[in-house]
Design brief:
The complex is a heterodimer of chains A (697) and B (168). Chain A contains 21 helices and ten strands. Chain A has 697 residues and is an alpha+beta fold. Chain B is an all-alpha fold and 168 residues long. Classes of the chains: A alpha+beta (697), B mainly alpha (168).
């Protein structure tokens, strides 16, 4: 690929850097125009609604400038990727994040592997979201004009960052080296080509519902249409963030070689916080749609979600908190602080000015209702978010108060956040069972009976099978999780069952057909249920961590190690080399209960360009457990490889659960079948069976 | 199935529920009183309460840096302390004295650091209390609702059918 694009060794340097810099400046001018002229136009429209044609034309020119900013930033991103592919080391960023021997997919990933490039990616994605929003402006021209102007303001900030404190096209000082310093070996993994863009799509995406919410509040938008418009934006964004977080977990599991997937690192926490508040928003927004409640709450939830994504970025990019994978300390933090303060001030000011517009139309009528379950769900999600934020910031607070830093690591979160998570799991089960407005005690009793029985039976069976919750808190939490998982699955399953049975009675078709029909008639509700099932599966996978086993020993020729039902025998260990790295690996035959199972090759690599060592984990994954093997290095005295083996039960279920969550979210985005059919002429034979109001509500 | 449901409903009678609850509480008490810990378990437990101080930011027993001499040394110190018969508290104190407070993977539950542990629970409780008060206020001052629809025998029949079919 690099050969096809050419190589900059001959001295054709600087041209693409100049083009990229120009494209960024053009992007800045265009989004600044969009913001300023858009704001002037909206102001004129608001003050003189019946005035002339002028403000509309101004607003239209602002919209087009916004579209133009996407084209300009796309050109800048292309220029940086081009520089990476052509080994243009005259660009300092490429010099520090790429090298000639780097495989081409990772040259592409170089775009987001450093501070400047990742900020360009952020600005580009933001412009891309803005592009879609501005192209689809006919959904609601005035509201979109407000949202577009607010989004343009956010774009101005991020484009300013890549113009002043973090320019990606800054030139290398002095003589240009023949080769680059290479990409961080940790990032040379296939998932790293997908994980950061996914995560950024999630972070950046929350800017759109934020812009719509702020715009709707500014213009005192009547009704809840803005929520209908932003629902899909929010769900797609949430899906991206979810996938981004879990891809990050999988990357940590597969690459870092410590046997875990979540270390409560500040960077991980930074991604979790907006996810938690975004999830709360997705739930509470339904109360506004259905009952006209929680309007102020929803507006603040989406404001908070956006601000948390900025705060997370600030924490990890300013050097404020130490993290394994934070960016280098820089002056960029000040910019983020100022931006965050401006955003908070604008949100507060607008809210205070327009809060009378956010009066609830209804209030909670019963504690036992869908509304109250959403309220508690929000409360728990926000408590979890506060816990994560508190844990992330406490080292700074402690240093300020006591003068010495403390570590807030996994034991803190396991003790404080895990019970909150378990309570959330419980709410996942009871929420769908409750009806809107009020649920009778009799109905609660009837609908809770089987889920409760399932939960108790699951706990008893697991204890009979050997789980001992009195041994440690981990086992107790696991037992509670498995038991609640059974409760939730039964509760959600019974929802499907009841609805499908009604359809089956009316159509006379089989249960599978009825289930599909039911789901297609209310994709949002049943897609949501599938997401909950996915969450349960993820929790089951997480609960398995209480039963991890590990062993570590030197393993020379024909040495063996036994762990659980597995026996590993060393067949050989050797070395290899290519242009990018040298490697050492060991071939291990794995036997389960005496039968040959697989051959595994844990590896350690030494990357030439970056002069860094990295482990490549060998993992044999099954639904029951993962056999996770790490090549730890060689004993200096004996020169024999040291192998660490970890048995991780149920980990595969985490990834399966995420797939179910993603499928459920995608399903919820599909229009309902009835709406589709209503849009086209109906044949008499296709007459629809009316679905009772309680089902699919 | 309905007969079975009714039968199980009886199990959940209030008087029986109280007995179940009392029995469960007694069992839980027994469970927690019956804790036990050997040296290997203590090593695992304490090793997960300490950090590797090489700068990797990982828990001591999870540090996987190739040739990390710091974690190897700390692990050896932990094993020696346990072999000496030091209590958990003494082991942790020894590490804090040698490596500073950042060696602990979680803030100690004393002094100002206690705030770290209390704050999340306190915020959660206050939020619950606030929500409960809000719900109470809403119930005491209900908003004017739109007038109910006039009773219609046909609507009532449809609603009854729906309730029957959906069992809600």
């Amino acid at each position: 690929m690099a050969r096809w694009l050419g190589d900059n060794r001959q001295g054709r340097t600087g041209a693409m850097a100049a083009f990229g810099s120009f494209a960024i400046l053009l992007g800045l001018v265009l989004c600044a125009y969009n913001f300023l002229v858009g704001a002037i136009a909206l102001r004129q429209i608001a003050v003189h609604p019946q005035a002339s044609f002028g403000p509309e034309r101004l607003a239209e020119s602002a919209r087009r400038a916004g579209i133009g900013s996407f084209i300009a930033l796309s050109a800048a991103a292309f220029a940086l990727i081009y520089c990476a592919f052509t080994n243009d080391f005259s660009v300092s960023y490429i010099l520090h994040h790429s090298n000639r021997a780097l495989p081409w997919p990772y040259k592409f990933a170089a775009l987001w592997s450093g501070q400047e490039g990742s900020l360009l990616l952020w600005a580009w994605l933001l412009a891309a979201y803005g592009f879609v929003l501005r192209v689809r402006h006919k959904v609601d021209v005035k509201l979109t004009a407000y949202a577009s102007t607010i989004l343009a303001a956010v774009q101005v900030f991020f484009t300013l960052l890549i113009v002043f404190p973090a320019p990606p096209f800054a030139l290398t000082q002095g003589a240009v080296p023949a080769d680059g310093f290479g990409l961080n070996p940790l990032l040379q993994y296939p998932e790293m080509v997908i994980h950061p863009p996914m995560l950024y799509l999630g972070y950046v995406g929350f800017s759109v519902p934020f812009a719509f919410a702020l715009g709707a509040l500014m213009m005192r938008y009547p009704g809840e249409k803005w929520i209908h418009i932003t629902r899909r934006w929010t769900m797609v964004t949430w899906l991206f963030l979810t996938c981004g977080i879990f891809l990050g977990m999988h990357w940590a599991y597969a690459v870092l070689g410590w046997g875990g997937y979540w270390g409560w690192d500040p960077v991980e926490n930074a991604s979790l916080m907006p996810w938690l508040t975004g999830t709360a928003f997705l739930h509470s927004v339904m109360m506004q749609e259905k009952r006209g409640m929680m309007k102020s709450w929803n507006v603040w939830l989406i404001f908070t979600t956006f601000m948390l994504s900025i705060l997370g970025t600030l924490l990890t990019r300013s050097g404020l908190v130490s993290s394994v994978h934070a960016f280098a300390e820089s002056s960029i933090g000040t910019w983020f602080w100022v931006f965050l303060l401006i955003v908070l001030s604008v949100c507060l000011f607008t809210y205070i000015l327009q809060r009378d517009h956010l009066q609830s139309e209804h209030k909670l009528e019963s504690l036992i209702s869908r509304e109250s379950s959403f309220l508690f769900n929000n409360l728990v999600l926000l408590a979890a978010c506060f816990t994560v934020l508190w844990g992330t910031l406490f080292p700074i607070i402690s240093e300020y108060v006591e003068g010495s830093k403390v570590t807030v690591g996994p034991p803190f979160y396991n003790r404080v956040a895990v019970p909150i998570g378990i309570f959330l799991l419980f709410l996942t089960g009871i929420g769908p069972i409750l009806a809107w407005r009020s649920t009778s005690f009799k109905s609660v009793q009837r609908n809770f009976l089987w889920p409760c029985i399932a939960g108790v039976v699951a706990a008893l069976v697991l204890m009979a099978a050997g789980m001992r919750p009195w041994q440690d808190m981990g086992t107790l939490y696991s037992l509670m999780t498995f038991s609640l998982a059974a409760l939730v699955v039964t509760a959600v399953g019974s929802e499907f069952w009841r609805g499908a049975r009604v359809i089956q009675r009316h159509t006379g078709k089989n249960m599978l057909f009825s289930l599909v029909q039911l789901t297609r008639r209310n994709t949002r509700r049943y897609g949501g249920h599938l997401v909950h099932i996915g969450v349960v599966i993820v929790f089951v996978g997480l609960a398995g961590s209480a039963f991890n086993q590990s062993n570590e020993q030197e393993m020379g020729f024909h040495d063996s190690m036994t762990i659980g039902q597995y026996r590993l025998v060393c067949q050989s260990y050797t070395q290899d080399s290519n242009a990018n790295y040298d490697s050492e690996y060991e071939l291990l035959n794995v036997y389960k209960n005496g039968k040959f199972l697989a051959q595994m090759a844990p590896e350690r690599r030494f990357y030439h360009a970056s002069q860094q060592t990295e482990t490549m984990v060998a993992n044999h994954s099954t639904l029951e457990r993962d056999l996770y093997v790490v090549y730890e290095g060689r004993n200096q005295d004996t020169n024999q490889p040291i192998i660490k083996v970890i048995l991780n039960p149920l980990v595969a279920w985490i990834w399966i659960g995420v797939a179910v969550m993603a499928f459920g979210t995608l399903l919820a985005l599909v229009p309902n079948m009835s709406a589709e059919q209503a849009a086209r002429p109906r044949k008499p034979a296709e007459e629809e069976v009316p679905l009772p109001a309680g089902v699919g509500d | 199935m309905r007969a079975c449901q009714t039968h199980v409903s009886r199990i959940f009678d209030r008087s029986l529920l109280r007995t179940w609850f009392q029995l469960s509480a007694a069992c839980l008490l027994l469970i927690f009183m019956a804790g036990a810990g050997d040296t290997a378990a203590r090593y695992k437990l304490l090793g997960h309460q300490l950090m590797c101080t090489c700068g990797c930011g990982q828990v001591l027993l999870e540090c996987n840096h190739v040739g990390c001499t710091v974690s190897t040394q700390e692990e050896a110190e932990l094993r020696n302390a346990l072999a000496r018969g030091d209590s958990d508290q003494l082991v942790l104190q020894g590490f804090v004295q040698k490596y500073g407070p950042t060696v602990l993977a979680a803030p100690p539950q004393s002094g100002f650091n206690l705030v770290a542990w209390i704050a999340p629970g306190l915020v959660f409780l206050l939020a619950m209390l606030g929500t409960a008060l809000l719900i109470r206020k809403w119930k005491l001052h209900p908003v004017a609702m739109p007038p109910e629809m006039a009773a219609d025998p046909h609507t009532d029949a449809v609603l009854a059918k729906i309730r029957k079919e959906t069992e809600l």
